[in-house]
């Protein structure tokens, strides 16, 4: 079976974590971009074809929840998987209510992360397909079915 790469943006203020996770995901055939703050993530999303964002909740400056809300505001179909520490489950719930696809506790199980990435990308693709169909229907109605 051919594995389709996922375009992933990893966002965390811990550079070693971002680099190690990015290397592992690249080794698995995915396309990776890195950001070390919420602001950098928003900048990357303006220019890169991101499918899924892996976003740390606790970061200096713009925290993960603020970044999530802005990501979903600017790019509603981009899916976000939150990373949180054990003491921040309440914050993860807030993230889910704000549009996150799911969350993982740090340190995350790598196989569980891969599974969630695949599911998030699939949901993004389904949303994009529904949008295309709705736009096509709208265009057909406007042109009188031609």
From TrEMBL:
DNA-binding is among the record's keywords: yes
Listed Basic and acidic residues bias regions: 124-138
Domain Response regulatory: 7-121
Family matches, as Pfam families: Response_reg (PF00072)
Keyword Translocase: no
Keyword terms, alphabetized: DNA-binding, Phosphoprotein, Transcription, Transcription regulation, Two-component regulatory system
Domain of life: Bacteria
GO CC terms in record: cytosol; protein-DNA complex
Modification 4-aspartylphosphate occurs at: 56
MF terms in GO: phosphorelay response regulator activity; transcription cis-regulatory region binding
InterPro entries reported in the protein's UniProt record: CheY-like_superfamily, Sig_transdc_resp-reg_receiver, WalR-like
Gene3D superfamilies in UniProt: 3.40.50.2300
GO biological process: regulation of DNA-templated transcription
Residue span of region Disordered: 124-146
Annotated protein name in UniProt: Chemotaxis protein CheY
Lineage, broadest ranks: Bacteria, Pseudomonadati, Thermodesulfobacteriota, Desulfarculia, Desulfarculales
